Amino acid sequence: MVSPTDKKQWIVDEEAAAVVKRIFDLCIGGKGSMQIAKILKENKVLTAKSHKLKKRIPTTKEQQAIFYNTHEAIAEDAVFERAQDN
To answer: What global pTM score does this model have?
Structure first.
């Protein structure tokens, strides 16, 4: 999310970061995406499906941009890489 004091600075949303870390831990622990979604739903955590209910502006790949290293990593590199293998 954007810093409230500096619109050019990105900061980590700590509440969302805790959920992201949990998802990585569940993935590394052997849970699949459906199991993870079920766990999050049981715990009343907003899931991607819930986010789709919000108004979205469709974009093409050409309209999208990826910015690397704009803020601290939520998951450590080793954790991210292990999750990619699952």
So the answer is: 0.68
